[in-house]
Design a protein that fits this description.
Blueprint lengths: L5 H16 L2 H20 L5 H18 L19 H28 L11 H4 L2 H22 L7 H18 L13
Helix pairs in contact: 1-4, 2-3, 2-4, 3-4, 3-6, 6-7
């Protein structure tokens, strides 16, 4: 570790204490709630690519909302003698949270792709779902949630409280108000 540059060394040393500050129960609750729509698609009659995409989009919301509180830290601005600037401390917290969200998302998409009736005799379930496009949508939703939470943290102690409604309002506005020509993925064609 002695060969690492100064800030990177400080980030590695700060990771365990930052891990204690991350509200892990938000991420656990969001992961469990994200599992519900995908599990319901398994319990349904026969999964179709359209229903699987809809269920994965429903699973995105609790997963993105669980990240809303990841950057909240009431002591962030009061610790002026910290070894890292604020941006470095936030980067450490992101480095702890984002891989967990990505791992849960990979599990959810794998579960949705393996749903009974989705795979045909000629094509696997992965080929029928726009996993890349859906992953990009999740990344944009998580980025919006984190940005809204960090922006709101300038005025209130817990920016995640404001990030949740902003994320939900944006998701519902895009779903209900976006014109059909704004398709986020190509529709399924056998």
């Amino acid at each position: 570790m002695s060969r690492l540059p100064g800030h990177l060394r400080a980030m590695v040393q700060l990771a365990p204490s930052s891990g204690r500050l991350v509200p892990w129960w938000h991420l656990a609750a969001g992961s469990v709630l994200a599992l519900v729509p995908v599990w319901l698609s398994w319990r349904g009659a026969v999964a179709t690519p359209g229903s699987s995409v809809s269920m994965l989009r429903l699973a995105m919301l609790p997963l993105a909302l669980s990240a809303a509180f990841a950057l909240d830290d009431p002591t962030l601005n009061s610790t002026s003698q910290a070894p890292l600037p604020v941006a470095g401390r936030l980067a450490v917290r992101l480095a702890l949270v984002v891989p967990l969200i990505a791992a849960v998302w990979a599990g959810l998409t794998g579960l949705a792709a393996a749903a009974p009736g989705l795979a045909s005799s000629t094509r696997a379930g992965w080929e029928l779902l726009p996993v890349g496009a859906l992953s990009l949508e999740l990344a944009a939703l998580v980025a919006l949630t984190l940005a809204a939470g960090r922006l709101a943290a300038r005025w209130i102690d817990e920016g995640g409280l404001a990030a949740g409604p902003v994320t939900l309002a944006t998701a519902f506005a895009l779903y209900f108000l976006a014109p059909p020509s704004w398709a986020f993925y190509l529709p399924y064609r056998p």
